[in-house]
Inverse folding.
């Protein structure tokens, strides 16, 4: 990373930490609900980053990251519900469980390339909600009823609301995870991952243990997404199989493609995008119908789809890639 | 106008700012909570307009049309209803976010008829912590009537548990030497029926000779029906949602199994179950009803049904009148309408709950004759009576008296 962009990142992180403190000054703008919404964006960014590590930096496809998200969420929920584990301790636990699940899934996945792998992960995403309902697991997972949880309490008597604390907690986890990812990608291991993506045979010839790197990447990717799942369990304070349907996996993929494949910034943008657009698509379609008075009864998903097509058409490298390109063009024009 | 009002940060913030200026000025004479004022009452709702349960989206559309009609006629006690309805896609994670938006951002007076058992469970605790009414939820689970633990949540339809008890009692009273086979959808809805059914059988629970389950995503229930026939059962209790219920009825006829059939109310739809199953195969099936079936000719000349037909023609032109979701939506919206009317000028959240828990023998449009709304501070189940009906010809034929289960 260049030093200029490092300054930018630092600035944004500092800003993110300061904003909630403005609540007494601007109670309507920095409301608890908005902080909660930003927390969900942070969680989505982490999940998209997990997928990005696998797809963007290692070239393996997954249509099933919702499954790891669900495993992470349920690991956290079961630990909190059955063993009274504090919410913060569930994050590393979910990471470990998801790493193991992802690693094990990565082993047979070695034999599968490209769209075959995509299909296998797709099957995993379809299976997980059913497995969660399975009667032998019902005692743990609560079956279709799900598990109702407590929201994280503010520690050390800090003068924060629950939502402010949740926001800080998510933000800290996010900063740590992105920092770790950036360091990993800048290391020998990161270069090996990308070498495998760019030219599998060449990487193999250079002496990179491709099988090991691919499975470990799968595990790390799953762990990241699992951490996001565990955070969401704390944020929503409820888990149920219906929360982890196939659309979740597809949303991660949309976030990835729209944000920017193979870009850390892109993962953040992708996470923000899908929460924001998912939320405002319905408002937009209502706006078209009621305020513009056009005789279209567009469903929210139609609007979502049209937006998606427009973005992919205008910015084939995702928003991160598109902005970078526009930036370069502006500079060369000067 | 009825519409969702979300236009990004600026619009929401300025609307909020305006509200907070307007509210204290009127608080002096009349009593208001968030979401109510001299001119407006904000009511929130979420439903599945997309996703796996989107056929229930018709209920939300009916509710929206209902409030449009109310506003057109001058509103409730001079106040317009601002009905904010959002798409939760039948996803429990999504509804939490949307509910927070409705409660904290839009500051609705109450939530009304949010749909789905898992979805309502996801916001159950939140609504009660925030002390915001979660009224007349669209699910028949029995957990919505617990005023001691959850004083801000109330159900609407007869709960599945009660219905299960009623079928069990009817079987014991009417079938000689019953051997019962049960087909159950493997989820909380199925289990609620099953628990009620077992309770109704009491010491006779040994009369269930076979109990088989299926997943809502299973493509067919053929093998389950064959197992039930092989068990020698002469009574068949069909706890299934429409698709599987129709398949089971058809399969039973195909393999020549002729038990006495009981079908849960959830699937008692002529259009989406009995016709696909084959009208010949469906003769004699027994179910329980509490709403007027829109295909039943005998209601055509009753006042409330005529009013509903006229309303449908005016406010939902072109919609399928045989779809019972429209009847359900109209009935539950009428109850909400009456509740708000009773609140008068005291539109506080406490008073909304007080009025909701204060219906005595209230005659709600489109309920079967003899079934009324009864609630009290300790009874949060508005409808607890049903009437049995037998399928005859092309529609349901009601028989016997209106029945209710005590307690539950």
């Amino acid at each position: 990373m260049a030093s200029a962009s490092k300054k930018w990142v630092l600035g944004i992180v500092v800003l993110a930490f300061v904003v909630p403190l403005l609540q007494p000054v601007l109670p309507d703008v920095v409301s608890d609900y908005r902080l909660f919404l930003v927390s969900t964006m942070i969680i989505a960014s982490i999940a998209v980053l997990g997928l990005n590590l696998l797809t963007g930096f290692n070239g393996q496809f997954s249509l099933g990251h919702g499954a790891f998200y669900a495993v992470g969420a349920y690991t956290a929920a079961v630990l909190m519900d059955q063993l009274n584990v504090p919410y913060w301790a569930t994050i590393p636990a979910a990471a470990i469980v998801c790493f193991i699940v992802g690693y094990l899934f990565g082993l047979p996945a070695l034999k599968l390339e490209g769209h075959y792998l995509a299909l296998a992960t797709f099957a995993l995403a379809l299976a997980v909600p059913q497995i969660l309902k399975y009667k032998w697991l019902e005692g743990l997972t609560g079956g279709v009823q799900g598990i109702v949880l407590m929201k994280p309490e503010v520690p050390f008597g800090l003068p924060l609301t629950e939502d402010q604390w949740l926001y800080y907690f998510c933000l800290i986890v996010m900063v740590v995870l992105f920092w770790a990812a950036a360091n990993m990608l800048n290391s020998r291991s990161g270069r090996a991952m990308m070498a495998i993506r760019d030219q599998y045979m060449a990487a193999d010839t250079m002496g990179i243990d491709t099988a090991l790197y691919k499975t470990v990447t799968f595990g790390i990717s799953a762990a990241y997404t699992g951490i996001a799942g565990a955070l969401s369990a704390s944020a929503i304070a409820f888990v149920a199989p219906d929360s982890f349907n196939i659309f979740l996996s597809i949303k991660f993929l949309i976030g990835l493609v729209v944000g920017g494949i193979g870009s850390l910034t892109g993962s953040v943008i992708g996470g923000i995008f899908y929460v924001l657009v998912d939320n405002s698509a319905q408002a937009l379609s209502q706006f078209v119908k009621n305020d513009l008075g056009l005789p279209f009864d567009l469903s929210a998903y139609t609007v979502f789809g049209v937006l998606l097509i427009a973005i992919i058409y205008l910015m084939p490298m995702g928003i991160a890639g598109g902005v970078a390109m526009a930036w370069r063009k502006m500079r060369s024009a000067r | 106008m009825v519409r969702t009002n979300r236009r990004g940060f600026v619009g929401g913030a300025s609307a909020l700012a305006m509200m907070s200026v307007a509210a204290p000025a009127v608080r002096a004479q009349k009593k208001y909570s968030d979401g109510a004022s001299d001119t407006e009452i904000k009511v929130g709702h979420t439903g599945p307009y997309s996703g796996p349960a989107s056929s229930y989206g018709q209920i939300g559309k009916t509710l929206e049309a209902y409030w449009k009609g109310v506003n057109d006629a001058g509103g409730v006690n001079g106040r317009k209803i601002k009905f904010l309805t959002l798409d939760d896609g039948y996803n429990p994670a999504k509804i939490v976010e949307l509910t927070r938006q409705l409660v904290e951002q839009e500051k609705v007076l109450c939530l009304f008829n949010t749909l789905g058992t898992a979805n309502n469970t996801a916001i159950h605790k939140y609504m009660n912590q925030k002390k915001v009414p979660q009224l007349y939820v669209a699910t028949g689970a029995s957990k919505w009537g617990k005023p001691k633990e959850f004083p801000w949540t109330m159900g609407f339809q007869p709960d599945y548990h009660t219905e299960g008890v009623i079928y069990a009692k009817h079987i014991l009273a009417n079938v000689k030497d019953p051997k019962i086979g049960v087909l159950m959808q493997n989820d909380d809805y199925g289990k609620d029926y099953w628990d009620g059914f077992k309770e109704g059988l009491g010491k006779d629970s040994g009369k269930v000779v076979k109990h088989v389950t299926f997943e809502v995503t299973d493509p067919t229930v053929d093998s389950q029906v064959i197992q039930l026939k092989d068990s020698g059962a002469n009574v068949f209790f069909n706890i299934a949602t429409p698709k599987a219920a129709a398949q089971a009825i058809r399969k039973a006829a195909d393999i020549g199994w002729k038990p006495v059939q009981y079908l849960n109310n959830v699937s008692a739809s002529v259009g989406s179950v009995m016709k696909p199953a084959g009208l010949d195969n469906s003769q004699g099936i027994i179910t329980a009803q509490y709403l007027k079936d829109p295909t039943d000719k005998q209601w055509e000349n009753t006042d409330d049904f005529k009013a509903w037909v006229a309303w449908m023609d005016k406010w939902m032109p072109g919609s399928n009148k045989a779809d019972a979701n429209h009847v359900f939506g109209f009935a539950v919206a009428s109850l909400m309408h009456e509740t708000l009317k009773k609140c008068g000028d005291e539109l506080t959240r406490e008073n909304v709950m007080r009025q909701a828990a204060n219906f005595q023998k209230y005659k709600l449009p489109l309920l079967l004759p003899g079934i009324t709304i009864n609630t009290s501070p300790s009874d949060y189940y508005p409808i607890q009576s049903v009437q049995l009906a037998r399928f005859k010809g092309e529609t349901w034929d009601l028989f016997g008296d209106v029945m209710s289960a005590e307690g539950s």
